[in-house]
Amino acid sequence: MFIFGPVPSRRLGRSIGINNIPPKICTYSCIYCQVGRSTKMFSDRKDFKNTDAIIKELYTKLEKLDKKNEKIDYLTLVSDGEPTLDKNLCKLIKELKKTGIKTALISNSTLLTRKDVIEDILLVDWLSLKVDTINEKLWTKIDRPLKTLILEDILDSVKDISNLHNGITVSETMLVKDLNDRSSDLKDTADFLSECDFETSYISVPTRPPAEKWCLPPEESNINMAYHIFKNHLENVELNISYEGNDFSSTGDVEKDLLSITKVHPMKEEAIMEYLRKNNMTEKNLERIIKTGLLKKTCFNNENFYIFSNKKL
Ligand code: SF4
To answer: 82: Cβ below 6 Å to ligand 1?
Structure first.
């Protein structure tokens, strides 16, 4: 299950997700991570021996979508881990580009200090780089990085790549209540971003169940303050905090597709219900999947979500 979606994306329209990393392998273990705590953390790139299988699965998916006349805006490398840890990323991106569909990659920026990673990510059409804070203490608390990572080096690389990348390069800053949502820290982050060359700087907040239950979105007044501080420093700022919609679809194997989506993208209850309705399924089918132990219901911010459960992995 390397391919999921199409899923609605607030920034990329209808996107097919490509999950090129085995579950929960990352250089960070962010408190807000929607796939839970990282179980393996390292910064060496590895050959996960999955490129051919990914491409095969992608073409099967694209054929099915073509038959249904479904349009795709982006093929997005967004893993339940850090996609640049894949040693075969270059080969994979080149294969994705052969489809003629635009490519996107969402990275936590930690490996941009490596020349081989830079060469790979410059290939995509749309690149999102994470900059949650420039304060080392907050960085350690929020992103919980590998001990070998150096924030200053990462930030220098982010600045360089934002200038080097020929496609669309955006930044993403995830705000967490009582951590990086104070005005002084927001000013520092915005100041740093203003030295980079991002087309748009997005402000996000946790909207799906996070790795740590105590990790919450900031108060609305602080989100507004963050927006205005960023706006004072940067030309294009957008809040990426609204609901992306329920337009999830399946291309045949409804249950398998549902599990692939929830592996990377926890779904709101209303989205799951609409997905079931669209695919002539009932809540009984959902109960059956839950009984297998691969899907579980959870509550975050007073809303019910369904998330993949890797109890069986
Ligand atoms: S949110 Fe992204 S960077 Fe953070 S732990 Fe999860 S996969 Fe890694």
So the answer is: yes
